[in-house]
Write a structure and sequence with these properties.
By secondary structure, the chain is of the alpha/beta class. Helix content is about 50%, strand content about 15%.
Length: about 260
């Protein structure tokens, strides 16, 4: 049989890919062993592959139909958030299940675990509340329910036309009452748990305010729901809020989807 001569450049490329896959196998095996040590009752397997990290994860998820995908960020720097956009953000917006973008916790003795839950009144945001309420957390874990409410305000028109100002004031009062009711309903979900739950209603843009609240409170994770649509429209809307929060937050962010089962 005629032997095909493989170009030297192609050999070098193949050699690099082969070395990278072997290194990935070693890394994923160490990760598997670590998970097994921490969760001895779990059935843990490992697999390495070559290709686009985001698409390989999504392809594997399409086969396994998982409840949750956990991906890491590349740090808290601006560069880390830029890299996040190429992998974690892709998984976050394209996956059919819940996704957690994990960032390491700075351990401080005596500091409780702190969780921020973003609420907007949608069923998916209550899905995030239930996801937190149904998990096992360390003793003294604290939960803060946060609603970001963007109040109406047209100062010049309000000054010129008092009636407009009255309408805006009534609308803002109604929005505040709605927010209080949503927060109260969410708080009731935790009534049988041992978690310490507080609520916060804040004005502004949730893309900025949720990460800001989490940073001010030294939170370990932000939980929030997707919009609840399992199509491209859901992903478009998600990209404008949840993905922005995941990119800006200094802590882990978990986007909860409950329609994938």
């Amino acid at each position: 049989a005629r032997q095909i001569k493989v170009p030297a450049d192609l050999k070098r490329v193949y050699s690099r890919i082969e070395a990278a896959v072997k290194a990935a196998h070693r890394t994923v095996e160490r990760a598997r062993e670590r998970v097994e040590v921490n969760f001895p009752k779990w059935s843990v397997s490992s697999q390495a592959a070559s290709g686009s990290a985001a698409w390989e994860l999504l392809f594997k998820a399409s086969e396994m139909k998982p409840n949750l995908i956990v991906v890491g960020s590349h740090g808290r720097s601006a560069l880390g958030r830029l890299v996040l956009g190429s992998i974690s953000q892709k998984v976050l917006t394209e996956a059919a299940c819940s996704v957690r973008v994990a960032r390491g916790r700075v351990e401080e003795p005596g500091t409780p675990l702190r969780i921020v839950v973003g609420l907007d009144g949608s069923p998916s945001s209550f899905g995030a509340v239930e996801a937190v309420a149904n998990r096992n957390w360390p003793t003294n874990t604290e939960v803060k329910l946060v609603i970001v409410n963007d109040e109406w305000s047209i100062p010049i028109v309000e000054d010129l036309i008092p009636a407009v100002g009255e309408v805006i004031e009534e609308e803002n009062s109604a929005e505040k009452a709605w927010a209080e009711e949503i927060a109260s309903n969410a708080e009731n979900i935790f009534r049988d748990s041992s978690l310490k739950v507080t609520r916060l209603i804040r004005k502004g843009d949730p893309k900025r305010e949720l990460p800001q609240v989490a940073e001010e409170w030294s939170a370990d994770c932000i939980f929030m729901g997707s919009t609840g649509f399992s199509n491209r429209f859901e992903r478009f809307v998600l990209g404008s809020v949840s993905a922005a929060v995941a990119a800006r937050a200094h802590c882990s962010v978990e986007v909860v989807r409950s329609f994938h089962v």
